[in-house]
């Protein structure tokens, strides 16, 4: 009989034996040829691998991660839209789905002067 980890195979026909428990006193009977085999599998399998054994694009980018502060994060996108209140050439905007999924989103615009308005797409 041969054992590979917790898998036990019949010595006569090579069939995979069922019911392996890791108990060396247990006898396993082959369903194909009827041969009785001792259970020589290990009850616990421990494997170890190095992080370099499984290359990962994400792991290689860990050193390229930037730390951002709250001031660095821009909450709204900027668009070239003239503010109807003050005439500024840039406005901030964000979109939100307010109605059903088969209808367009609502675009919310805001200017540094405090003027806000929305457009339904």
From TrEMBL:
Coiled-coil stretches: none
First and last residues of each zinc finger (C4-type): 10-33
Pfam families, alphabetized: Zn_ribbon_RPB9 (PF02150), Zn_ribbon_TFIIS (PF01096)
Protein name: DNA-directed RNA polymerase subunit
GO biological process: termination of RNA polymerase I transcription
CDD domains: Zn-ribbon_RPA12
Function: DNA-dependent RNA polymerase catalyzes the transcription of DNA into RNA using the four ribonucleoside triphosphates as substrates.
Matches recorded under SMART domains: ZnF_C2C2
Family under the similarity heading: Belongs to the archaeal rpoM/eukaryotic RPA12/RPB9/RPC11 RNA polymerase family.
Record has ATP-binding as a keyword: no
Gene Ontology annotations for the cellular component aspect, listed alphabetically: nuclear DNA-directed RNA polymerase complex; RNA polymerase I complex
Gene3D superfamilies per UniProt: 2.20.25.10
Keywords: DNA-directed RNA polymerase, Metal-binding, Nucleus, Transcription, Zinc, Zinc-finger
SUPFAM superfamilies reported for this sequence: Zinc beta-ribbon (SSF57783)
Residues where Zn(2+) 1 binds: 10, 13, 30, 33
GO MF annotations in UniProt: DNA-directed RNA polymerase activity; nucleic acid binding; zinc ion binding
TFIIS-type domain residues: 79-118
Residues reported to bind Zn(2+) 2: 83, 86, 111, 113
UniProt-annotated location(s): Nucleus, Nucleolus
